[in-house]
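Lecture notes, unit on protein representations.

Consider one protein chain, 302 amino acids long.
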Amino acid sequence: MRTLRPPMLAVVITILIALALSETAEGVPGLSNVSRGLTGLVVSPATIEKDLGRFLWFVETDLGAITVSNPSYEPMWVKLDLCRLSHDALGVLETQDEPARGSDAVRLKPRTFTLPPGGRATVRASVDPAYLTKSGEKGIYASIMVTSRPATTRPAMGVRPVGAVGIPLLVRFGGKPDAKLIITDIQVVETDRHEGRTRVVQVRVRNDGRTHVRASGSVAIGKEEARQHAGGVVLPVALVLPGCERVLEGPWPEGLTSPGTYHVSARLSADGVTVPGAGPSASARVAIDEAEAAAGGSRTRL
């Protein structure tokens, strides 16, 4: 593994400071937001999330503005594209190398442009109203990829292309959200955390609907032998995109270590509203024998 020498480390720190300053400067060459040898763009906002309203003949189409700043001494050529957006089971957003569904309906003006050194541009984003009313779709989910490269054929020393910046775009069209949450699995597992080995309840959910949703829920734990409620777990709120799966996780109750077999069932909520039929039928069983209970409740999953 390579280590940074002290001069290189100083350069990295200088670049990070220059990036931070460029977010508040007005984009005039010669001011503090211009850094010789620095490349890349400063882009905001980090995410665009919008529920587009509709009332009678009025259809909301505006998605807001994207600000792109160039903190270098080099003019930069900039291009915006839309790619498909998804996420993994842990909720880490992923950009797929393919067009997003409905991307042709998203208007970005301007879509390509050149930024002078220290310059700043505003890109307006909107949706074609015909797509909102006639496509039958319920939303658009994409990553707005902002790519750049030096506009000159002989860039200044130390300046080089730096890939792209992605802005997640989450748009729901007017009307009732179309999210369909389904529990696909429930497990009680042991994981290594900072405080040591601990037991957690994991509920895997899938969104079979056409709009994104913030899922949450609760887990009921009952002791089978006594047929009585023994404890519960609250599942934190998590974003689930259409067609994606997400794992909701909560800690096993600390005091629940007595020997026996426990029945675990989950109930879900979508944007704060209970989802009927998604949870009570999905369940798991956990057995804790006397030896495990004496050792602190290490679980055996059935």
